Amino acid sequence: MDLSYGPEYETFREEVRDFIAVNRHLAPKNAGRAARPSKEGVAWQKLLIEHGYTARTIPREYGGFGAEPDILKSRIIAEEFARAGVPGGLANQGISMLVPTLLELGTEEQKRRWIQPTLAGEVVWCQGYSEPGSGSDLASLKTNARVENGEFVINGQKIWTSTAKEADMIFCLVRTEGDAAKHQGISYLIFPMSTPGIEVHPLKTMTGHAEFNETFFTDVRVPVDQIVGQRGQGWFVANATLGHERGMLGDPDALENRLVGLIQLMKAEQLGGARLIDLPAFRDRLVALQAEVAAMKYNGMRILSNQIKGEPGGMAKLIVKLQACELAHQISALAIDALGELGILYHGSAHERANGSWQWNYMFQLGLIIGGGTAQIQKNIISERGLNMPREPRLDLPKRPSAQGGQ
Amino acid sequence: MDFGLSQEQQMLAESVTRLLRELCSLDQVRQVAEGGSAVSAQTQAALAEMGLPGLVVPVTYGGLGMGMLDAAIVATAMGEAVAPVPFAGRYVMAPLALIEAGTEAQKEQWLPRIASGEVSFGVGVQELISSRDGSGLRCTGGKLTGAALFVLDCEDADHFLVADEFGRLHIVSAQAEGLELIALKTIDATRAVGELRLASTPAEGLVDDGGAVARRVIAAGRILLAADSLGGADAMIAQAVVYAGQREQFGRVIGSFQAVKHMCAEMAAKIEPCRSLVWYAGHAFDAVPAEAELVACHAKSHTGEVGRFVARAAIEVHGGMGFTDLLGLHYWFKRIGFDRQVLGGPEAVREEAAMLQGWTARAD
How far apart are CA A198 and CA A156, in angstroms? Predict the structure, then answer.
C-alpha cells in the first residue's frame, strides 16, 4: 500500500495548481449542463487542450495534446480541478464516446475531419442507440437503412437522445443488413442532424424537464461512406466505447462532492434550534452514507492501481455502476428527508432550497440507475462475469469479427 | 501509488489461508465447538509456529514488526475459515497497548513474552464503549474492582489487559487475588469471551494518557472485526455460488434463475467496497493516524451492515439446507453476528464517528 504519488507527480500537481490559480478567472461561469459550450467555454477548452489538461492523450494531429497515457497524471488533473471547483475539460458524448471510437476504428479521413472540432467544442454530437422497443436488448434495434443510389435511407425512431436539439451530428446504430443475425446486421453511421427527414421531439421526464429527446427518421439520406467500421459491424464498434459510458456513471469524486453538499446542507439548516446534522436519526443515516462513500472512494483507488499495473479491474470495477448510482440516489434521498416537508418544494417555490436541486437529483438519479445498463442488467453482468454464474439464455450469440475490432 | 496488497502481504494471506484449509476444516471447527472449547489447539500451535503471536510486536522485541494492514489480512483469512483461535485481542490489541502505552521497562518485560507465546492475554475494553448491567472497572490505589464484560480471547489467558473507567489500561494476572473469570456463552462457538470480575485485584497500570491509547486499541479491534467479517462474507458468497451452481430445481440449476443470481450479485457488489475500506483502515491506522479512528468506525459499521446482509442472503440461496446444521453455514452467520455487535454495533459506532467530527449536540 503506497498512496503517495511520488515527487515527479507532486511536481506535476504543483503545475496544475499554478495553472488553475493563474487562469481560473477565464473559466466559464455557468458551465453546468449546457449541451453547447459558450464562447468562454470554447476558449477555456482551447486553453486546457494547449496545456494538456484535457484531450491529453489524443494525438496532436487530431487536435489533442499528444501526451503519452499516464493514468496518474490524468487523475491528478481531475483531482485538482475538482478541488478548486473549476470546470475541467468538456465531457460530452462526442468527446467521451465518439472520439475514442473514431480513434480506434475510424478511417484516417474521419479522424482528421471530426476529432479536432469535436474536442474544441465546435461540433456537438448526440447518441442514437436506444429505441422504444430496444433498451436493455439494444441489439434488437429496428431503425433500418436500405441502400439506394449510394446512400443509406434511414427510417425509424431513437429515444434518450440527450442534446439532440443542440447537436450538429449524431452517431447512430441502424440495421443495414436485414437478413443477417441480430448482432451482425447493425451499422454505426454518423450524419448531420440537419439532414432532411430528422425530427426531434423533447422527452419530458419525471423531473418536469426534458433532459432527453425522441428522434424520428423519415427517409433520411446519408452517403454510404459515413459509416464507422464495416457494414454489419456496428454492434462491435459501439461496444468498443460502451465501457466509457459506464465509467462516467460511477465517478467517486462526484459522490464525494454530493456528500460534501449534503453535509453542508445539514449543517446550515436548523430545526427547533438544532442543526439537522445534530438530529440523531438523520445523523446516523449521514454517517452510514459517509462510510459507503469512503468505501467507494478506496474502491476507486484500487481500480486506478489495477489500471496502472495493466491488470483487469475485476469485481472492484464490475460493481461500480450499480453501487455508485444507488449511493448517489440515497444521498439525495437523505437531503430530502432531512429537510422534512421543505424537501418537497420544487418548481422555484417560495422556501425552496438549492433551486430544487435535491429533488431534481433524486429523480434524475433514479433515471441513472435505469440508464446506461439497468441495475438488473448490472446484476446479470456481476453474477455472470464476476461470479461465473450461468449466463442468461441468448439467441444468436455474437461473434467478434476477425477484421478490425478489439477493445 | 499502489492501493492494494504488496507481494509479501499476498503471500502472508495465502500462507495463513493454506494453513487454515489444512488444519481447520469445517469438521475440525465443529469438533472444537462441540467439545465446548473455542480454541483449536492444533491450529493455534501451527499459527504460533508461523510467528503469529509476534505479528505486530516490533522486531527489537522479538516479533515480526508488521502493521495493522497485515493483521487485517490475517483476520480476513481467519474469518474465511471461521477459525477457532485467539487473534484480535491476544495478538494485536494487547501488544499494541504495550507498544503505545507501555514504559520501556514494561515493553521489555511483556512484548518478547507475547511474541514467544509465553504469556497469553485476554483483552477487556468493551466498557469504554458500553457499560451493561453495571459493568466497569474502578482503580483505587493500584487495585481494580468491578466487572469487565466481553473480554476477548479469554480462554487459557494467563493475563488480562483491561481498561478502567477513565480509559487507563492495566495488566492483571489471571492468578491475582480477587479475580474471577466467567465464560460467556454466545452464538459464536469459535470465539472465547468472558466476564472478568475483580475485587481489589492488584494491577499493573500502563501510562495514564486519558484513554488515548485505549481508543487506538479499540480502533484496531474494530478494524480486525471488520476484516474478519469480510473474510466470513467472502466464504459465504463463495459457498452460495457453488451451491447455486449444483442444486437443481424445475430442471435447472438454481444459479440460472435471476432471482438467485441477483442475490449473489448484490452480495458481491456490497462486499467488494468493504474490502477496499478495510484495507484502507488497516493502512491508515499506521500511516495516517489522524484518520485512523474515524475510518476504523466506518469499516466496522459498514462491514457490520453488509455482513448481516450477506450472512442472511447466503443462507437464503442455500434454501432449507442453509437453515440446517448439516452444511454448517451457521458458523459463519454467527461469527459475522459476533463481529457486528462486539466493540460497538453499527449504530453505536456511527454515533462515535459523528462525535469525532463534531456533529453532535448531546445534552450531556
Answer: 10
Helices (H), A232-313: 234-248, 252-268, 280-308
Final residue in a domain of this structure, among A177, A203, A235? A235
What is the C-alpha separation between B272 and B227, in angstroms, rounded?
12
Determine whether the interchain pair A383/B276 forms a contact, defined as Cβ–Cβ distance below 8 Å: no
Instruction: For residues A94 and B244, give the distance between their C-alpha atoms in angstroms, rounded to a whole number.
Output: 43
Residue of B287, B270, B283 whose CA lies nearest to B230:
B270
Identify which has the larger pLDDT, A114 or A396.
Answer: A114
Whether A302 and chain B come into contact, CB under 8 Å, resolves to: yes
Q: CA A203, A206, A207: angle at the middle one, nearest 5?
A: 95
Nearest C-alpha neighbor of B306 from the set B205, B208, B231, B241: B231
Q: Quote the CA–CA distance of A90 and B355 in Å, as a whole number.
A: 40
State the cell numbers at A395. 439467441
CA distance A271 to A285: 17
Query: Pairing relation of β-strands A186-192 and A169-175?
Result: antiparallel
Total tally of structural domains belonging to chain A: 3
Query: What cell was used for A222?
Result: 446519408
Domains of chain B (ranges plus CATH)?
7-116 (1.10.540.10), 121-205 (2.40.110.10), 212-356 (1.20.140.10)
Residues 6+ apart with CB under 8 A from A271: A279, A340
pLDDT (0 to 100) of residue A94? 94
Question: Do the chains contact at A315 and B270, CB–CB below 8 Å?
Answer: no
Range of the domain at A136: 125-235
Of how many residues is chain A composed? 407
Looking at residues B334-355, what average pLDDT do you find? 98
Rg (CA), chain A: 22
* Burial bucket for residue A390 (CB in 10 Å: 0-12, 13-18, 19+): middle
User: What is the CATH classification number for the domain harbouring A208?
Assistant: 2.40.110.10
Would you say residue A113 lies in a domain?
Answer: no
- Grid cell, residue B74, equals 490475517
CA–CA separation, B145 vs B198, rounded Å?
5
Mean pLDDT for chain A overall: 92
Give the one of B3, B274, B350 whose C-beta lies nearest to A1's C-beta. Answer: B3
Distance of alpha carbon B332 from alpha carbon B328, whole angstroms: 8
| Per-residue pLDDT reduced to its tens digit, A193-221 | 999 999 999 999 999 999 999 999 999 99
Asked if B295 lies within 8 A of A294 by C-beta distance, the reply is yes
Q: How far apart are CA B214 and CA B170, in angstroms?
A: 10
Contacts of B74 (CB under 8 A, 6+ apart): B12, B13, B16, B52, B55, B87
Of B4, B264, B287, nearest to A305 by CB-CB distance is B4
A54-83 residues touching B, CB cutoff 8 A: 72
Measured CA to CA, the distance from residue A26 to residue A48 in angstroms comes to: 11
Domain end, chosen from A235, A257, A281, is at: A235
Q: Which residues contact B11 (CB under 8 A, 6 or more apart)?
A: none
Least confident of A13-17, A390-394, B201-205: A390-394
Active site residue A151: no
- How far apart (Å, rounded) are the C-alpha atoms in residues A346 and A367? 18
Task: Please provide residue A296's backbone torsions phi and psi, each rounded to the nearest 5 degrees.
Answer: -70, -30
